[in-house]
Amino acid sequence: MTETLAFVGVAGGAGTTRTAVEVAATLARDGRSVAVVDGAPETQGLARYVDGRIDPDATAALVDEAGFEDALVEAWADLDGRAALWPTHAPFERLARAQTPDAARCLDRCVRRAEEQFDHVLLDVPPLASNVAVAAATTADRRALVAPAARRGNDHLPRMRGRLVDVGAGADDVVATRVDGSHPLSEADHEIPAGDPDAVVPTCVEPDTDLAPAVADATEALLETSLDLEFPSEGLLG
Asked: How far is residue 197's CA from residue 137's CA, in Å, rounded to a whole number?
């Protein structure tokens, strides 16, 4: 049975989209099928990981101008599994129409469609401040708060926990991003290292990077699954 996981950023620039992309690539490397759904249409961040034209995009599906499958973009064909992104790349007029309560209900339907087709569905969710973001967070089975491993992340974490409670959800895990040594996020359940800023994304498809085993460890725990992946410096995972 497909389980959906929402990565919810505690603040802008927390690394939420990058985390969702790296986890998706890790699952595809293990031979799984995975979709990453853009629950942050106003930032259009997921589109950065797509080569070529995006037409139609996720907002077209949210306003009933396209179907869910029409907006899927296949990614990383060289991996053993299937990965597909559902990105946003739209004019402001359609972005505005994609933030209505009707669009939020449509997002829920699209996630259900994804569950029928993929082993895993990941949602990229910004700090909760819109109908679509709330819908993305609440439609998921599990939620992981994503916070930068810095004072800013520590300061925003309690507020975002409270917002999830306000909308009838809760945080199952906390993922600290850009970890480089000690940090103030004492509540972090998982740590993702900073990584090389010049590295190609997704970085975790290269097993000899520091990022790859850390993302795999987090993926196993977040999705309560076991991966059969090899890492030269860490031995066998799973």
From this structure: 28
